[in-house]
UniProtKB/TrEMBL annotation:
Keywords, in A-Z order: ATP-binding, Chaperone, Nucleotide-binding
PROSITE patterns: HSP90
Database matches in Gene3D superfamilies: 3.30.230.80, 3.40.50.11260, Heat shock protein 90, C-terminal domain, Histidine kinase-like ATPase, C-terminal domain
Listed name of the protein: Molecular chaperone HtpG
InterPro entries attached to this UniProt entry: HATPase_C_sf, HATPase_dom, Heat_shock_protein_90_CS, HSP90_C, Hsp90_fam, Hsp90_N, Ribosomal_Su5_D2-typ_SF
Top-level taxonomy: Bacteria, Pseudomonadati, Bacteroidota, Cytophagia, Cytophagales
Gene: htpG
Source organism of this protein record: Mangrovivirga halotolerans
All residue ranges annotated as the Histidine kinase/HSP90-like ATPase domain in the record: 29-169
Amino acid sequence: MSTVKEEKGTISIHTENIFPIIKKFLYSDHEIFLRELVSNAVDATMKLKRLSSLGEVTEELGDLTIDISINKEAKTLTIEDRGIGMTAEEIKKYINQIAFSGATEFVEKFKDAKDANEIIGKFGLGFYSSFMVAEKVEIETLSYQEGAAPAKWINDGSTEFEITSVDKKERGTKIILHINSESEEFLEEARINNILEKYCRFLPVPIRFGQKDERMEDGKDEEGNPKYKEVKVDNIINDTNPIWTVPPSELKDEDYKNFYRKLYPFSEEPLFWIHLNVDYPFNLTGVLYFPKIKNDIDVNRNKIQLYSRQVFITDEVKDIVPEFLMLLHGVIDSPDIPLNVSRSYLQSDSNVKKINNYITKKVAEKLSEIFKNERSEFEKKWNDISVFVKYGMLSEDKFYDRAKDFALLTNVDDKKFTFEEYKTAVEPEQTDKDKKIVFLYSTDAAKQNTYIETAKSKGYDVLKLDGVIDSHFINMLEQKLENVTLKRVDSDTVDKLIDKGTEKESKLSDEQKESLKSVVEKAIGNENYNVKVEPMDESEMPLVVTLPEFMRRMKDMAKTGGGMNFYGAMPDQFEVSVNANHAMAEKILNAGDENKQVGLAKQVFDLALLSQNMLEGESLTKFIQRSVDYLAK
Protein backbone atom coordinates (compact mmCIF):
# COMPACT_ATOMS: atom_id res chain seq x y z
CA MET A 1 0.00 0.00 0.00
CA SER A 2 1.34 3.44 -0.88
CA THR A 3 1.89 6.06 1.81
CA VAL A 4 0.91 9.65 2.11
CA LYS A 5 3.49 12.37 1.68
CA GLU A 6 3.58 14.47 4.83
CA GLU A 7 2.88 18.14 4.29
CA LYS A 8 1.68 21.29 5.99
CA GLY A 9 -0.14 24.15 4.42
CA THR A 10 -2.81 26.81 4.59
CA ILE A 11 -6.51 26.21 4.05
CA SER A 12 -7.71 28.03 0.95
CA ILE A 13 -10.68 30.26 1.65
CA HIS A 14 -12.58 31.58 -1.35
CA THR A 15 -13.15 35.28 -0.70
CA GLU A 16 -16.81 35.10 -1.69
CA ASN A 17 -17.30 32.48 1.01
CA ILE A 18 -15.55 34.16 3.92
CA PHE A 19 -18.71 35.34 5.66
CA PRO A 20 -20.60 32.03 5.79
CA ILE A 21 -17.67 30.14 7.32
CA ILE A 22 -17.13 32.34 10.34
CA LYS A 23 -17.67 29.50 12.72
CA LYS A 24 -19.38 31.50 15.44
CA PHE A 25 -22.12 32.64 13.09
CA LEU A 26 -22.45 29.70 10.71
CA TYR A 27 -25.12 27.96 12.77
CA SER A 28 -27.60 29.40 15.22
CA ASP A 29 -27.57 26.30 17.41
CA HIS A 30 -24.34 24.52 18.27
CA GLU A 31 -25.93 21.08 18.45
CA ILE A 32 -26.38 21.22 14.66
CA PHE A 33 -22.73 20.18 14.24
CA LEU A 34 -23.63 16.56 14.95
CA ARG A 35 -26.44 16.57 12.39
CA GLU A 36 -24.02 17.92 9.77
CA LEU A 37 -21.28 15.40 10.49
CA VAL A 38 -23.66 12.44 10.57
CA SER A 39 -25.26 13.74 7.36
CA ASN A 40 -21.82 13.82 5.75
CA ALA A 41 -21.25 10.24 6.89
CA VAL A 42 -24.59 9.25 5.34
CA ASP A 43 -23.59 11.08 2.13
CA ALA A 44 -20.36 9.10 1.97
CA THR A 45 -22.25 5.84 2.51
CA MET A 46 -24.93 6.62 -0.07
CA LYS A 47 -22.20 7.54 -2.60
CA LEU A 48 -20.59 4.16 -2.03
CA LYS A 49 -23.89 2.32 -2.50
CA ARG A 50 -24.57 4.31 -5.67
CA LEU A 51 -21.14 3.55 -7.12
CA SER A 52 -21.60 -0.12 -6.24
CA SER A 53 -24.95 -0.23 -8.06
CA LEU A 54 -23.26 1.31 -11.12
CA GLY A 55 -20.50 -1.33 -11.01
CA GLU A 56 -17.75 1.13 -10.09
CA VAL A 57 -17.18 -0.57 -6.73
CA THR A 58 -16.71 -4.33 -6.99
CA GLU A 59 -15.77 -5.27 -3.40
CA GLU A 60 -18.34 -6.42 -0.84
CA LEU A 61 -19.75 -3.38 0.95
CA GLY A 62 -20.10 -5.16 4.29
CA ASP A 63 -21.63 -3.51 7.36
CA LEU A 64 -22.35 0.15 6.51
CA THR A 65 -23.54 1.16 10.00
CA ILE A 66 -22.31 4.60 11.11
CA ASP A 67 -20.85 4.64 14.65
CA ILE A 68 -20.92 7.50 17.14
CA SER A 69 -18.75 7.16 20.26
CA ILE A 70 -17.62 9.23 23.24
CA ASN A 71 -14.34 9.02 25.16
CA LYS A 72 -14.77 11.13 28.28
CA GLU A 73 -11.16 10.72 29.44
CA ALA A 74 -9.73 11.85 26.12
CA LYS A 75 -12.59 14.39 25.74
CA THR A 76 -13.32 13.19 22.22
CA LEU A 77 -16.45 12.58 20.21
CA THR A 78 -16.01 10.34 17.15
CA ILE A 79 -18.17 9.85 14.05
CA GLU A 80 -17.09 6.90 11.92
CA ASP A 81 -18.53 5.68 8.62
CA ARG A 82 -17.69 2.86 6.22
CA GLY A 83 -18.49 4.89 3.16
CA ILE A 84 -16.61 6.17 0.16
CA GLY A 85 -13.59 7.53 2.05
CA MET A 86 -11.12 10.13 0.75
CA THR A 87 -7.62 10.27 -0.62
CA ALA A 88 -5.14 12.90 0.57
CA GLU A 89 -5.82 14.83 -2.64
CA GLU A 90 -9.54 14.76 -1.99
CA ILE A 91 -9.01 16.04 1.56
CA LYS A 92 -7.10 18.98 0.14
CA LYS A 93 -9.81 19.56 -2.45
CA TYR A 94 -12.93 19.10 -0.34
CA ILE A 95 -11.84 20.03 3.19
CA ASN A 96 -9.12 22.61 2.69
CA GLN A 97 -10.90 24.52 -0.07
CA ILE A 98 -13.89 25.58 1.97
CA ALA A 99 -17.25 25.73 0.21
CA PHE A 100 -16.24 23.45 -2.65
CA SER A 101 -18.78 20.71 -2.26
CA GLY A 102 -17.90 17.09 -2.94
CA ALA A 103 -21.58 16.29 -3.02
CA THR A 104 -22.21 18.91 -5.71
CA GLU A 105 -19.45 17.51 -7.93
CA PHE A 106 -20.61 13.94 -7.37
CA VAL A 107 -24.22 14.75 -8.28
CA GLU A 108 -23.07 16.58 -11.42
CA LYS A 109 -20.96 13.59 -12.48
CA PHE A 110 -23.83 11.14 -12.02
CA LYS A 111 -26.71 13.50 -12.78
CA ASP A 112 -28.21 11.12 -15.33
CA ALA A 113 -28.15 8.17 -12.95
CA LYS A 114 -31.25 7.36 -10.92
CA ASP A 115 -31.25 8.64 -7.32
CA ALA A 116 -28.03 10.63 -7.68
CA ASN A 117 -29.77 13.35 -5.69
CA GLU A 118 -29.84 11.16 -2.60
CA ILE A 119 -26.70 12.91 -1.49
CA ILE A 120 -27.67 15.26 1.32
CA GLY A 121 -24.74 17.68 1.46
CA LYS A 122 -24.89 20.66 -0.88
CA PHE A 123 -22.68 23.38 0.48
CA GLY A 124 -19.34 21.93 1.59
CA LEU A 125 -19.58 23.87 4.83
CA GLY A 126 -21.23 21.37 7.17
CA PHE A 127 -17.92 19.87 8.26
CA TYR A 128 -16.71 23.19 9.64
CA SER A 129 -19.58 23.33 12.13
CA SER A 130 -17.43 20.91 14.16
CA PHE A 131 -15.20 23.84 15.19
CA MET A 132 -18.06 25.38 17.13
CA VAL A 133 -17.54 22.67 19.77
CA ALA A 134 -14.03 21.33 19.09
CA GLU A 135 -10.62 22.86 19.72
CA LYS A 136 -9.02 20.33 17.37
CA VAL A 137 -10.41 18.04 14.68
CA GLU A 138 -8.77 14.96 13.18
CA ILE A 139 -9.87 13.07 10.06
CA GLU A 140 -8.65 9.52 9.46
CA THR A 141 -9.80 8.21 6.09
CA LEU A 142 -9.23 5.50 3.49
CA SER A 143 -10.72 5.80 0.02
CA TYR A 144 -12.57 2.96 -1.70
CA GLN A 145 -10.24 3.43 -4.69
CA GLU A 146 -7.86 0.56 -5.31
CA GLY A 147 -4.36 1.21 -4.02
CA ALA A 148 -5.37 4.35 -2.12
CA ALA A 149 -3.29 5.32 0.87
CA PRO A 150 -4.95 6.07 4.23
CA ALA A 151 -4.52 9.69 5.27
CA LYS A 152 -4.88 11.77 8.42
CA TRP A 153 -5.80 15.47 8.49
CA ILE A 154 -5.34 17.60 11.63
CA ASN A 155 -6.54 21.15 12.24
CA ASP A 156 -6.86 23.27 15.38
CA GLY A 157 -9.47 25.70 14.05
CA SER A 158 -6.99 28.03 12.40
CA THR A 159 -6.19 28.16 8.68
CA GLU A 160 -3.17 25.88 9.31
CA PHE A 161 -3.56 22.14 8.58
CA GLU A 162 -1.42 19.02 8.57
CA ILE A 163 -1.78 15.85 6.48
CA THR A 164 0.09 12.68 7.49
CA SER A 165 -0.05 8.92 7.04
CA VAL A 166 -2.16 6.83 9.39
CA ASP A 167 -2.61 3.15 10.10
CA LYS A 168 -6.19 2.62 8.85
CA LYS A 169 -7.21 -0.63 7.15
CA GLU A 170 -11.01 -0.21 6.90
CA ARG A 171 -12.55 1.82 4.07
CA GLY A 172 -14.36 4.96 5.22
CA THR A 173 -13.82 8.06 7.35
CA LYS A 174 -13.40 8.64 11.07
CA ILE A 175 -13.80 12.19 12.39
CA ILE A 176 -12.46 12.78 15.91
CA LEU A 177 -13.55 15.97 17.66
CA HIS A 178 -11.47 17.14 20.64
CA ILE A 179 -14.25 18.91 22.51
CA ASN A 180 -13.38 22.35 23.90
CA SER A 181 -13.93 23.30 27.54
CA GLU A 182 -17.08 25.36 26.81
CA SER A 183 -18.78 22.44 25.05
CA GLU A 184 -18.29 19.51 27.41
CA GLU A 185 -22.05 18.91 27.42
CA PHE A 186 -21.38 17.09 24.14
CA LEU A 187 -19.41 14.45 26.04
CA GLU A 188 -22.58 13.40 27.88
CA GLU A 189 -24.29 10.30 26.51
CA ALA A 190 -27.80 11.59 27.20
CA ARG A 191 -27.13 14.85 25.34
CA ILE A 192 -25.72 13.09 22.27
CA ASN A 193 -28.51 10.52 22.30
CA ASN A 194 -31.13 13.31 22.34
CA ILE A 195 -29.49 15.11 19.40
CA LEU A 196 -29.27 11.91 17.38
CA GLU A 197 -32.91 11.06 18.07
CA LYS A 198 -33.96 14.58 17.11
CA TYR A 199 -32.11 14.89 13.80
CA CYS A 200 -31.18 11.36 12.75
CA ARG A 201 -34.09 9.12 13.74
CA PHE A 202 -35.13 8.48 10.11
CA LEU A 203 -31.80 8.58 8.25
CA PRO A 204 -31.43 5.96 5.45
CA VAL A 205 -28.25 4.41 6.91
CA PRO A 206 -28.18 2.73 10.36
CA ILE A 207 -26.70 4.95 13.10
CA ARG A 208 -25.25 3.15 16.12
CA PHE A 209 -24.54 4.91 19.42
CA GLY A 210 -23.02 2.30 21.69
CA GLN A 211 -25.25 -0.28 23.30
CA LYS A 212 -28.37 -0.37 25.43
CA ASP A 213 -30.06 -2.82 27.81
CA GLU A 214 -32.93 -4.83 26.45
CA ARG A 215 -35.21 -7.34 28.15
CA MET A 216 -35.31 -10.71 26.37
CA GLU A 217 -37.21 -13.92 27.03
CA ASP A 218 -35.01 -16.61 28.56
CA GLY A 219 -36.91 -19.87 28.71
CA LYS A 220 -39.72 -20.84 31.10
CA ASP A 221 -39.98 -21.28 34.85
CA GLU A 222 -41.29 -24.45 36.53
CA GLU A 223 -44.89 -23.29 36.09
CA GLY A 224 -44.41 -22.62 32.39
CA ASN A 225 -44.30 -18.83 32.66
CA PRO A 226 -41.70 -17.00 30.56
CA LYS A 227 -38.48 -15.87 32.22
CA TYR A 228 -36.59 -12.75 31.16
CA LYS A 229 -32.99 -11.51 31.26
CA GLU A 230 -31.29 -8.20 30.53
CA VAL A 231 -28.93 -8.27 27.55
CA LYS A 232 -26.80 -5.69 25.79
CA VAL A 233 -27.82 -4.87 22.22
CA ASP A 234 -26.67 -2.30 19.69
CA ASN A 235 -28.33 1.07 20.24
CA ILE A 236 -29.56 1.76 16.70
CA ILE A 237 -30.95 5.28 16.71
CA ASN A 238 -32.91 5.32 13.48
CA ASP A 239 -35.63 3.72 11.41
CA THR A 240 -34.06 3.61 7.94
CA ASN A 241 -37.39 3.08 6.14
CA PRO A 242 -39.91 5.51 7.66
CA ILE A 243 -43.50 5.33 6.53
CA TRP A 244 -43.30 8.17 4.01
CA THR A 245 -40.66 6.27 1.99
CA VAL A 246 -42.97 3.26 1.62
CA PRO A 247 -45.55 3.14 -1.23
CA PRO A 248 -49.09 3.78 0.13
CA SER A 249 -50.27 0.52 -1.46
CA GLU A 250 -48.02 -1.39 0.95
CA LEU A 251 -49.36 0.32 4.08
CA LYS A 252 -52.37 -0.38 6.30
CA ASP A 253 -54.29 2.02 8.56
CA GLU A 254 -52.50 0.59 11.58
CA ASP A 255 -49.10 1.45 10.04
CA TYR A 256 -50.14 5.11 9.78
CA LYS A 257 -51.49 5.11 13.34
CA ASN A 258 -48.34 3.48 14.72
CA PHE A 259 -46.17 6.08 13.01
CA TYR A 260 -48.35 8.87 14.45
CA ARG A 261 -47.87 7.40 17.94
CA LYS A 262 -44.12 7.37 17.33
CA LEU A 263 -44.15 11.06 16.39
CA TYR A 264 -46.65 12.19 19.05
CA PRO A 265 -46.68 9.61 21.84
CA PHE A 266 -49.16 11.46 24.08
CA SER A 267 -51.69 12.55 21.45
CA GLU A 268 -55.14 11.21 20.67
CA GLU A 269 -55.51 9.16 17.50
CA PRO A 270 -55.66 11.24 14.31
CA LEU A 271 -58.94 11.60 12.44
CA PHE A 272 -57.43 10.70 9.06
CA TRP A 273 -54.31 11.36 6.99
CA ILE A 274 -52.92 12.18 3.54
CA HIS A 275 -49.91 10.39 2.05
CA LEU A 276 -48.03 12.85 -0.17
CA ASN A 277 -46.00 11.44 -3.04
CA VAL A 278 -45.08 13.60 -6.04
CA ASP A 279 -41.99 13.70 -8.24
CA TYR A 280 -42.95 16.38 -10.77
CA PRO A 281 -42.58 19.36 -11.02
CA PHE A 282 -40.83 18.95 -7.65
CA ASN A 283 -39.98 16.06 -5.33
CA LEU A 284 -42.11 15.77 -2.21
CA THR A 285 -43.06 12.89 0.05
CA GLY A 286 -44.66 12.85 3.47
CA VAL A 287 -47.68 12.04 5.58
CA LEU A 288 -49.95 14.75 6.98
CA TYR A 289 -52.38 13.91 9.76
CA PHE A 290 -55.61 15.65 10.77
CA PRO A 291 -55.52 15.81 14.57
CA LYS A 292 -58.43 16.44 16.86
CA ILE A 293 -58.11 20.20 17.12
CA LYS A 294 -58.79 21.80 20.47
CA ASN A 295 -60.17 25.30 20.83
CA ASP A 296 -56.69 26.64 21.58
CA ILE A 297 -55.34 26.88 18.03
CA ASP A 298 -51.80 27.85 19.10
CA VAL A 299 -51.32 24.59 21.02
CA ASN A 300 -51.76 22.67 17.76
CA ARG A 301 -49.22 24.62 15.70
CA ASN A 302 -45.67 23.67 14.72
CA LYS A 303 -46.34 19.94 14.70
CA ILE A 304 -45.20 19.33 11.11
CA GLN A 305 -41.58 18.19 10.79
CA LEU A 306 -39.51 19.05 7.72
CA TYR A 307 -36.91 16.59 6.44
CA SER A 308 -34.51 16.64 3.51
CA ARG A 309 -33.71 13.10 2.38
CA GLN A 310 -34.70 11.82 5.83
CA VAL A 311 -32.52 14.35 7.71
CA PHE A 312 -34.57 16.41 10.16
CA ILE A 313 -34.33 20.12 9.35
CA THR A 314 -36.91 22.01 11.37
CA ASP A 315 -40.46 22.01 12.70
CA GLU A 316 -41.02 25.62 11.65
CA VAL A 317 -42.49 25.10 8.19
CA LYS A 318 -44.57 28.26 7.77
CA ASP A 319 -42.96 29.14 4.42
CA ILE A 320 -43.76 25.74 2.92
CA VAL A 321 -47.10 24.99 4.52
CA PRO A 322 -49.93 27.56 4.33
CA GLU A 323 -50.71 29.24 7.64
CA PHE A 324 -53.97 27.38 8.21
CA LEU A 325 -52.37 24.00 7.47
CA MET A 326 -49.97 24.57 10.36
CA LEU A 327 -52.73 22.92 12.40
CA LEU A 328 -51.95 19.60 10.71
CA HIS A 329 -49.38 17.19 12.14
CA GLY A 330 -46.90 14.94 10.36
CA VAL A 331 -43.84 14.90 8.13
CA ILE A 332 -42.80 16.54 4.85
CA ASP A 333 -39.63 15.44 3.07
CA SER A 334 -38.27 17.20 -0.01
CA PRO A 335 -34.81 17.70 -1.50
CA ASP A 336 -36.26 20.57 -3.56
CA ILE A 337 -36.91 22.86 -0.63
CA PRO A 338 -34.09 25.43 -0.65
CA LEU A 339 -32.17 25.85 2.58
CA ASN A 340 -29.47 28.24 3.66
CA VAL A 341 -25.98 26.98 4.53
CA SER A 342 -27.07 25.84 7.98
CA ARG A 343 -30.18 24.10 6.60
CA SER A 344 -32.05 25.84 9.40
CA TYR A 345 -34.17 28.41 7.63
CA LEU A 346 -36.33 28.15 4.57
CA GLN A 347 -35.86 30.55 1.71
CA SER A 348 -38.83 31.56 -0.37
CA ASP A 349 -38.67 30.67 -4.03
CA SER A 350 -40.92 29.29 -6.76
CA ASN A 351 -40.58 25.68 -5.60
CA VAL A 352 -41.72 26.57 -2.10
CA LYS A 353 -44.77 28.31 -3.54
CA LYS A 354 -45.56 25.31 -5.76
CA ILE A 355 -45.26 22.94 -2.81
CA ASN A 356 -47.44 25.25 -0.73
CA ASN A 357 -50.16 25.21 -3.41
CA TYR A 358 -49.86 21.47 -3.93
CA ILE A 359 -50.36 20.69 -0.23
CA THR A 360 -53.40 22.98 -0.07
CA LYS A 361 -54.89 21.25 -3.11
CA LYS A 362 -54.24 17.74 -1.74
CA VAL A 363 -55.83 18.60 1.62
CA ALA A 364 -58.94 20.00 -0.07
CA GLU A 365 -59.17 16.95 -2.35
CA LYS A 366 -58.94 14.57 0.62
CA LEU A 367 -61.70 16.37 2.51
CA SER A 368 -63.89 16.54 -0.57
CA GLU A 369 -63.37 12.83 -1.21
CA ILE A 370 -64.42 11.89 2.33
CA PHE A 371 -67.44 14.20 2.16
CA LYS A 372 -68.66 12.75 -1.13
CA ASN A 373 -68.02 9.09 -0.33
CA GLU A 374 -68.63 8.97 3.43
CA ARG A 375 -70.77 11.96 4.34
CA SER A 376 -72.04 10.46 7.60
CA GLU A 377 -68.44 9.84 8.75
CA PHE A 378 -67.47 13.34 7.63
CA GLU A 379 -70.32 14.83 9.68
CA LYS A 380 -69.21 12.86 12.76
CA LYS A 381 -65.72 14.36 12.44
CA TRP A 382 -66.90 17.86 11.56
CA ASN A 383 -66.72 19.23 15.10
CA ASP A 384 -63.04 18.22 15.23
CA ILE A 385 -62.04 19.60 11.83
CA SER A 386 -64.37 22.60 11.53
CA VAL A 387 -61.85 25.03 13.08
CA PHE A 388 -59.22 23.89 10.60
CA VAL A 389 -61.54 24.16 7.56
CA LYS A 390 -62.93 27.54 8.61
CA TYR A 391 -59.43 28.85 9.29
CA GLY A 392 -58.41 27.74 5.80
CA MET A 393 -61.42 29.39 4.17
CA LEU A 394 -60.65 32.63 6.02
CA SER A 395 -56.97 32.48 5.09
CA GLU A 396 -57.02 31.58 1.41
CA ASP A 397 -59.57 32.28 -1.30
CA LYS A 398 -58.39 29.24 -3.27
CA PHE A 399 -59.11 26.99 -0.34
CA TYR A 400 -62.49 28.65 0.15
CA ASP A 401 -63.37 27.91 -3.47
CA ARG A 402 -62.51 24.24 -2.95
CA ALA A 403 -64.07 23.93 0.52
CA LYS A 404 -67.38 25.73 0.04
CA ASP A 405 -68.99 22.54 -1.25
CA PHE A 406 -68.05 20.42 1.77
CA ALA A 407 -67.87 22.95 4.62
CA LEU A 408 -70.84 22.49 6.94
CA LEU A 409 -73.16 24.69 8.97
CA THR A 410 -74.65 23.17 12.14
CA ASN A 411 -77.94 24.32 13.66
CA VAL A 412 -78.85 24.28 17.35
CA ASP A 413 -80.53 20.89 16.85
CA ASP A 414 -77.19 19.53 15.58
CA LYS A 415 -78.37 19.04 12.02
CA LYS A 416 -75.70 19.76 9.41
CA PHE A 417 -75.99 21.47 6.00
CA THR A 418 -73.70 22.65 3.23
CA PHE A 419 -73.93 26.38 2.54
CA GLU A 420 -76.26 25.89 -0.42
CA GLU A 421 -78.38 23.32 1.40
CA TYR A 422 -78.93 25.71 4.30
CA LYS A 423 -79.66 28.66 2.06
CA THR A 424 -82.31 26.61 0.24
CA ALA A 425 -83.79 25.31 3.50
CA VAL A 426 -84.37 28.69 5.20
CA GLU A 427 -85.09 30.89 2.19
CA PRO A 428 -88.91 30.40 2.23
CA GLU A 429 -89.36 31.52 5.87
CA GLN A 430 -86.31 33.70 6.52
CA THR A 431 -86.34 36.17 3.64
CA ASP A 432 -86.91 39.76 4.77
CA LYS A 433 -88.70 42.63 3.05
CA ASP A 434 -85.50 43.55 1.16
CA LYS A 435 -85.28 40.02 -0.30
CA LYS A 436 -82.29 39.20 1.90
CA ILE A 437 -82.05 35.68 3.31
CA VAL A 438 -81.39 35.99 7.05
CA PHE A 439 -79.28 33.36 8.81
CA LEU A 440 -79.98 33.54 12.55
CA TYR A 441 -77.17 32.25 14.75
CA SER A 442 -76.37 31.57 18.39
CA THR A 443 -72.99 31.83 20.08
CA ASP A 444 -74.15 30.09 23.26
CA ALA A 445 -77.27 27.96 22.84
CA ALA A 446 -77.76 27.44 26.57
CA LYS A 447 -77.55 31.13 27.51
CA GLN A 448 -79.57 32.27 24.49
CA ASN A 449 -82.25 29.59 24.80
CA THR A 450 -85.09 32.07 25.36
CA TYR A 451 -84.32 33.87 22.10
CA ILE A 452 -83.80 30.59 20.23
CA GLU A 453 -87.16 29.26 21.34
CA THR A 454 -88.88 32.53 20.36
CA ALA A 455 -87.32 32.27 16.88
CA LYS A 456 -88.34 28.62 16.59
CA SER A 457 -91.93 29.50 17.53
CA LYS A 458 -91.97 31.66 14.42
CA GLY A 459 -90.81 28.72 12.29
CA TYR A 460 -87.25 30.02 12.04
CA ASP A 461 -84.04 27.96 12.21
CA VAL A 462 -81.00 29.00 14.27
CA LEU A 463 -77.37 28.12 13.50
CA LYS A 464 -74.80 27.29 16.15
CA LEU A 465 -71.68 29.42 15.60
CA ASP A 466 -69.84 29.21 18.89
CA GLY A 467 -66.30 28.33 17.76
CA VAL A 468 -63.07 30.15 18.50
CA ILE A 469 -62.92 31.87 15.09
CA ASP A 470 -66.63 32.00 14.26
CA SER A 471 -66.86 35.77 14.73
CA HIS A 472 -64.57 36.11 11.70
CA PHE A 473 -66.25 33.24 9.87
CA ILE A 474 -69.64 35.02 10.14
CA ASN A 475 -68.26 38.10 8.37
CA MET A 476 -66.75 35.94 5.65
CA LEU A 477 -70.06 34.18 5.02
CA GLU A 478 -71.80 37.53 4.51
CA GLN A 479 -69.13 38.58 2.01
CA LYS A 480 -69.12 35.28 0.10
CA LEU A 481 -72.77 34.17 0.12
CA GLU A 482 -74.90 36.12 -2.30
CA ASN A 483 -77.99 37.83 -0.89
CA VAL A 484 -77.37 36.53 2.67
CA THR A 485 -77.03 38.37 5.98
CA LEU A 486 -76.36 36.92 9.44
CA LYS A 487 -77.88 38.13 12.70
CA ARG A 488 -77.34 36.87 16.21
CA VAL A 489 -80.58 35.56 17.61
CA ASP A 490 -80.47 37.81 20.69
CA SER A 491 -79.37 40.98 18.89
CA ASP A 492 -82.92 42.30 18.45
CA THR A 493 -86.55 41.32 18.74
CA VAL A 494 -87.38 38.46 16.43
CA ASP A 495 -89.68 40.57 14.20
CA LYS A 496 -86.83 43.03 13.63
CA LEU A 497 -84.26 40.31 13.02
CA ILE A 498 -86.29 39.18 10.04
CA ASP A 499 -88.29 42.27 9.13
CA LYS A 500 -91.12 41.23 6.85
CA GLY A 501 -92.30 44.83 6.49
CA THR A 502 -95.61 44.31 8.29
CA GLU A 503 -96.73 46.88 10.89
CA LYS A 504 -98.34 45.73 14.15
CA GLU A 505 -101.00 47.74 15.90
CA SER A 506 -100.23 49.00 19.38
CA LYS A 507 -102.62 48.49 22.29
CA LEU A 508 -101.20 51.66 23.87
CA SER A 509 -101.78 55.19 22.78
CA ASP A 510 -98.82 57.43 21.93
CA GLU A 511 -99.26 59.17 25.30
CA GLN A 512 -99.22 55.83 27.15
CA LYS A 513 -96.12 54.76 25.26
CA GLU A 514 -94.29 57.96 26.26
CA SER A 515 -95.37 57.48 29.88
CA LEU A 516 -94.20 53.84 29.88
CA LYS A 517 -90.87 54.82 28.31
CA SER A 518 -90.30 57.38 31.07
CA VAL A 519 -91.04 54.82 33.80
CA VAL A 520 -88.67 52.22 32.30
CA GLU A 521 -85.87 54.80 31.88
CA LYS A 522 -86.17 55.72 35.58
CA ALA A 523 -86.10 52.02 36.52
CA ILE A 524 -82.93 51.48 34.52
CA GLY A 525 -81.14 54.69 35.48
CA ASN A 526 -78.36 54.22 32.92
CA GLU A 527 -77.95 56.33 29.76
CA ASN A 528 -76.19 53.44 27.97
CA TYR A 529 -79.60 51.79 27.57
CA ASN A 530 -81.74 53.25 24.77
CA VAL A 531 -85.44 52.59 25.55
CA LYS A 532 -88.12 52.17 22.86
CA VAL A 533 -91.75 51.15 23.35
CA GLU A 534 -93.09 49.31 20.30
CA PRO A 535 -95.83 46.84 19.36
CA MET A 536 -94.82 43.15 19.24
CA ASP A 537 -96.59 39.82 19.44
CA GLU A 538 -98.33 39.36 22.77
CA SER A 539 -96.49 36.03 23.13
CA GLU A 540 -93.08 37.72 23.11
CA MET A 541 -91.23 38.89 26.22
CA PRO A 542 -92.54 42.08 27.93
CA LEU A 543 -89.09 43.65 27.64
CA VAL A 544 -86.01 42.66 25.62
CA VAL A 545 -82.43 43.92 26.13
CA THR A 546 -80.16 43.58 23.10
CA LEU A 547 -76.73 44.67 21.96
CA PRO A 548 -77.04 45.68 18.28
CA GLU A 549 -75.60 43.18 15.78
CA PHE A 550 -72.86 45.52 14.50
CA MET A 551 -71.58 46.44 17.96
CA ARG A 552 -71.81 42.85 19.21
CA ARG A 553 -69.89 41.57 16.18
CA MET A 554 -67.12 44.13 16.55
CA LYS A 555 -66.72 43.24 20.22
CA ASP A 556 -66.66 39.50 19.45
CA MET A 557 -63.91 40.09 16.90
CA ALA A 558 -61.97 42.24 19.36
CA LYS A 559 -61.95 39.31 21.79
CA THR A 560 -60.33 37.05 19.18
CA GLY A 561 -57.72 39.58 18.08
CA GLY A 562 -59.56 40.80 15.01
CA GLY A 563 -58.04 44.27 15.05
CA MET A 564 -61.19 45.79 16.56
CA ASN A 565 -59.66 46.90 19.86
CA PHE A 566 -61.32 50.32 19.54
CA TYR A 567 -64.75 48.69 19.76
CA GLY A 568 -63.60 46.33 22.49
CA ALA A 569 -62.75 49.31 24.70
CA MET A 570 -66.04 51.14 24.08
CA PRO A 571 -68.84 50.94 26.68
CA ASP A 572 -71.74 48.73 25.63
CA GLN A 573 -74.72 50.58 24.14
CA PHE A 574 -77.86 48.49 24.63
CA GLU A 575 -81.27 48.65 22.99
CA VAL A 576 -84.26 48.12 25.33
CA SER A 577 -87.43 47.14 23.47
CA VAL A 578 -90.57 47.33 25.60
CA ASN A 579 -93.48 45.28 24.23
CA ALA A 580 -96.46 47.65 24.06
CA ASN A 581 -98.81 44.71 23.45
CA HIS A 582 -97.77 42.59 26.42
CA ALA A 583 -100.13 42.53 29.40
CA MET A 584 -97.22 43.66 31.56
CA ALA A 585 -97.14 47.06 29.84
CA GLU A 586 -100.64 47.96 31.09
CA LYS A 587 -99.89 46.42 34.47
CA ILE A 588 -96.92 48.75 34.95
CA LEU A 589 -98.94 51.78 33.86
CA ASN A 590 -101.78 50.81 36.23
CA ALA A 591 -99.55 49.96 39.19
CA GLY A 592 -100.53 53.13 41.07
CA ASP A 593 -97.97 55.65 42.22
CA GLU A 594 -94.68 56.18 40.42
CA ASN A 595 -92.63 54.19 42.93
CA LYS A 596 -94.72 51.09 42.32
CA GLN A 597 -94.53 51.62 38.56
CA VAL A 598 -90.74 51.96 38.67
CA GLY A 599 -90.41 48.94 41.00
CA LEU A 600 -92.41 46.74 38.66
CA ALA A 601 -90.53 48.03 35.60
CA LYS A 602 -87.24 47.34 37.39
CA GLN A 603 -88.34 43.75 38.00
CA VAL A 604 -89.22 43.26 34.33
CA PHE A 605 -85.94 44.87 33.22
CA ASP A 606 -83.87 42.65 35.55
CA LEU A 607 -85.72 39.63 34.22
CA ALA A 608 -84.62 40.60 30.71
CA LEU A 609 -81.03 41.03 31.91
CA LEU A 610 -81.22 37.64 33.56
CA SER A 611 -82.25 36.05 30.25
CA GLN A 612 -79.08 37.53 28.72
CA ASN A 613 -76.86 36.41 31.63
CA MET A 614 -76.18 40.07 32.35
CA LEU A 615 -77.53 40.18 35.92
CA GLU A 616 -75.00 39.58 38.64
CA GLY A 617 -73.70 40.67 42.02
CA GLU A 618 -75.79 43.05 44.10
CA SER A 619 -78.33 43.55 41.29
CA LEU A 620 -78.98 39.81 41.17
CA THR A 621 -79.38 39.63 44.95
CA LYS A 622 -81.90 42.49 44.94
CA PHE A 623 -83.81 40.90 42.06
CA ILE A 624 -84.13 37.62 43.97
CA GLN A 625 -85.34 39.43 47.10
CA ARG A 626 -87.92 41.43 45.12
CA SER A 627 -89.13 38.22 43.48
CA VAL A 628 -89.60 36.63 46.89
CA ASP A 629 -91.51 39.72 48.09
CA TYR A 630 -93.82 39.66 45.03
CA LEU A 631 -94.51 35.96 45.50
CA ALA A 632 -95.29 36.50 49.19
CA LYS A 633 -97.96 39.09 48.41
